[in-house]
Design a protein that fits this description.
Elements (H helix, E strand, L loop, with lengths): L9 H11 L11 H9 L4 H19 L9
Length: about 70
């Protein structure tokens, strides 16, 4: 099934342009409850080790990437 191609309208392009100028960031500061939950969150040692191992594996995999979407 072929995908029908469409062109964005002038209004859509204008809104996209306007939106692209807005810096990324949170739309509001965290509530006191959210801050407290974040500060009190604890990971068990097994989870920390698993995350650390995965991070290192992905960093090593990404170190040799030669182009977008390339997986060695």
């Amino acid at each position: 099934m072929a995908v029908e191609r469409t062109e964005p309208s002038v209004a859509t392009r204008a809104e996209d342009e306007k939106e692209s100028a807005v810096p990324a960031g949170a739309d509001r500061p965290p509530t006191s409850e959210e801050e407290e939950a974040a500060e009190s969150a604890q990971l068990d040692q097994e989870t920390k080790e698993s995350v650390t191992k995965h991070y290192k594996e992905m960093a090593e995999l990404g170190a040799d990437v030669e182009g977008e979407g390339h997986i060695p």
